[in-house]
Every structure is written in structure tokens, then in C-alpha cells.
């Protein structure tokens, strides 16, 4: 039996962040640099793959949280990535942390880039998964693509992530079903679903990031692991290659026959690579 609670059983906690209650979960050993997980579009605490959270938490302290206005966190959801980054830093400070590692997935990867640029002394290492740089090709199409697959999911009685995160191959479809089943493993103390206004705010923030002028990524001098599936439709995979090329100290991992949720589909490969990178 694990010494530490797992993603399935760790309690949800609340912390006051400048007058607003933020919901979070904190698991894993209390040694080493904590890893802060930054979530994707419309995501709440229960949208993190338990295999990724527990896999990293077997070695490192892992903290997941709902940003302002999302899930059980209070306040109004920001409609810019910069504001989300400000809130994330305030959350980290509210926990009394002075140095962290970041794992940003999709929209969370946008937020991670801003944090690392604006607070270089706060972030030691960073993992950017299923994400891309400001102004990256195709990112401004996320709103349309998401809307289409949300409708598609409703018509087929499936979670939209079945279509958005995975390839259409038999293997991809099988992995999609397995991933969605894992998201239901936690049966108590589940998070609150995102509201429609918060979802719209996320879409606005992503669109603004997609049409934003590119930033000078050479200023991010920290070690970065860039990971994605090789067939990402949401944030096209060439954005991952672009990130790895433009960042001064980056390594790239592209997983075969995998889409936006490549780190979830290939968690058996991603977790050891992530842990090794963070411990390097």
C-alpha cells in the first residue's frame, strides 16, 4: 500500500489567494522541488490523468489546482493567459513556495511560458505538453475545432476529449476509452464542472494567445522538456517542434500515433521521462 494518498483519494483543499478561495490537491513526498500542474481548456481537478499524477507523485510532490473561477475555485475566470499566469503565481506564493517545477498541458503550457518569463527565479524546470508558443500556427483555430467536437461528442454521447485528444486509428480510439475510464476512477469528493462563462473565457484567452505576436523564447534559459503526440489536431504538433527549436535548453519527445493527449496515451513512457528530466 502506498505511503502517500493517490489521486483517487487525496482530499481537495482550499487556500486563500488574495481574498479568493482556490481549490487544490497536494500529494506525494515532501522532498525535492514541488511540481505544479497547469491544466487545459475547460479542465478541472478531475481531468488530470491519474496515471500521470500518481506516476510523478511517486517521486515528487505534485500539486494540482483550479485557477480562478474554475471548478471549486472562487472568483471570475480571466480571459487572458497573462491574467491566468498572475493568478497561478499568487496561488504558488499563497502555499509558501519559493521555487517550483511546472508541468503545463495545452492552455496550461501557455500559462507556464508566461510564468517562466516573468518569474525566472520561481521556476527551476518546466515541462510543456501538447502546447505551443504565442502566435503558433493553428492555435487560433482551437475555438472552432473545440466547438465542432463538442457537438460531435453530444451527438454520439461521448466526451469531446474522445475526439479532441486522440487519433482516429483503432489504437487511438482504444486509448481514448481507457483514458476516459481512468478519469472516473475517483468516485468521491469530485470537483465541480466548469461553468459556461468560464469555458468561454478560456476560449477567448486561447484565441488571443493564438493571434498574439511571437515572443522571444531565447530569454527562457531554464531546462525544458517539450512533449506531445505526433498528430495533435488541437495545438498542431509542429508547434512543439517550434518550441524545442526556439528554447535555448530544450529536449523534444513526440509520441507515435498520438494526438493532443499524447502524454496521457503514452503515460508509461512519459512519466519515467518526466521524472528523469525533473531529477536530472
UniProtKB/TrEMBL annotation:
Database matches in PANTHER family: AB HYDROLASE-1 DOMAIN-CONTAINING PROTEIN, HYDROLASE, ALPHA/BETA FOLD FAMILY PROTEIN
Domain of life: Bacteria
Gene3D superfamilies reported in the protein's UniProt record: alpha/beta hydrolase
Keyword Zinc carried by entry: no
Coiled coil: none
SUPFAM superfamilies (alphabetical): alpha/beta-Hydrolases
GO MF, any single term: hydrolase activity
Domain AB hydrolase-1 as annotated: residue spans: 34-266
InterPro entries: AB_hydrolase, AB_hydrolase_1, AB_hydrolase_fold
Protein name: Alpha/beta hydrolase
The species this protein was found in: Terrabacter tumescens
The organism's taxonomic lineage, starting at the top: Bacteria, Bacillati, Actinomycetota, Actinomycetes, Micrococcales
Keywords: Hydrolase
Pfam families: Abhydrolase_1
Amino acid at each position: 500500500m502506498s505511503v502517500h494518498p493517490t489521486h483517487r483519494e487525496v482530499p481537495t483543499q482550499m487556500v486563500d489567494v488574495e481574498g479568493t478561495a482556490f481549490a487544490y490537491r497536494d500529494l506525494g513526498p515532501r522532498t525535492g522541488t514541488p511540481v505544479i500542474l497547469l491544466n487545459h481548456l475547460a479542465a478541472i481537478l478531475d481531468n488530470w490523468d491519474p496515471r500521470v499524477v500518481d506516476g510523478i507523485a511517486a517521486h515528487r510532490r505534485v500539486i494540482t489546482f483550479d485557477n480562478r473561477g474554475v471548478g471549486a475555485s472562487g472568483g471570475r475566470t480571466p480571459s487572458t493567459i497573462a491574467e491566468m499566469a498572475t493568478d497561478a503565481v499568487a496561488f504558488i506564493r499563497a502555499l509558501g513556495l519559493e521555487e517550483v517545477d511546472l508541468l503545463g498541458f495545452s492552455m496550461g503550457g501557455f500559462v507556464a511560458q508566461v510564468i517562466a518569463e516573468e518569474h525566472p527565479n520561481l521556476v527551476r524546470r518546466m515541462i510543456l505538453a501538447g502546447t505551443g508558443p504565442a502566435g503558433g500556427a493553428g492555435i487560433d483555430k482551437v475555438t472552432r475545432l473545440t466547438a465542432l467536437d463538442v457537438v460531435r461528442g453530444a451527438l454520439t454521447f461521448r466526451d469531446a476529449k474522445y475526439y479532441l485528444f486522440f487519433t482516429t486509428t483503432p489504437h487511438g480510439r482504444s486509448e481514448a476509452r481507457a483514458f476516459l475510464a481512468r478519469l472516473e476512477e475517483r468516485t468521491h469528493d469530485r470537483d465541480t464542472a466548469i461553468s459556461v462563462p468560464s469555458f468561454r473565457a478560456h476560449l477567448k484567452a486561447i484565441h488571443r494567445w493564438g493571434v498574439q505576436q511571437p515572443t522571444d523564447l531565447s530569454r527562457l534559459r531554464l531546462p525544458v522538456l517539450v512533449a506531445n503526440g505526433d498528430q495533435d489536431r488541437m495545438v498542431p504538433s509542429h508547434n512543439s517542434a517550434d518550441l524545442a527549436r526556439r528554447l535555448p535548453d530544450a529536449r523534444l519527445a513526440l509520441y507515435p500515433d498520438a494526438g493532443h493527449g499524447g502524454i496521457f496515451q503514452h503515460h508509461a513512457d512519459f512519466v519515467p521521462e518526466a521524472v528523469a528530466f525533473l531529477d536530472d
